[in-house]
Amino acid sequence: MDTQTILILFCIGIVAGMLSGIVGIGGGIIIVPALVFFLGFSQLKAQGTSLGILLLPVGILAVIQFYKQGYIDMKTVGIVACSFVVGGYLGSKIALALPQETVKKVFAVLLLLISIKMFFFDKQKTASVKINSVTEKPV
After folding, report:
1. Does residue 43 lie within any of the structural domains?
2. pLDDT digits over 110-121, tens only?
3. pTM above 0.85, yes or no
4. Is 72 a residue whose pLDDT tops 70?
5. Domain that holds residue 11
C-alpha cells in the first residue's frame, strides 16, 4: 500500500470518527462513499471494509464518552444490539446476493431519503415538549 493511499485512509478514518462522535452517525455513512470515491472500491468491498473498520473502535472509545455522561440507555443498547447482530447477518446475505449496482443504488437512495427528512421534516421541538425517559440525561 503506497503512502498516498495510507494518508487517504487515515483522513477518511479521522473524518468518519469525528462525525460519528459529533452527530452520532455510524461511520459507514462516511466511510463507504469515501472508499468508493477516493480509492475506487466496489460497493460491496467498501461496505465490508467499513464493517470491519467500525467493529471495534466505535464500540469502545465513542461509547465510553457518552456512557460517562449518562447518555446511554443500556436496556435499549442490549435489545437493539442483539437484534442488530441478526439484522447485520441477514443484510449481508441479501447484499451479497444482489447485483453490486443494485446495492449501490439502494445505499444512495437511503442516504438521499435521510437527507431529505433531516432537511425538511425534522423540525426542532420547542422547550415545552416533554422529554421522554430514554433520551433524558440522568441528574
Report:
1. yes
2. 889 888 988 898
3. no
4. yes
5. 3-120
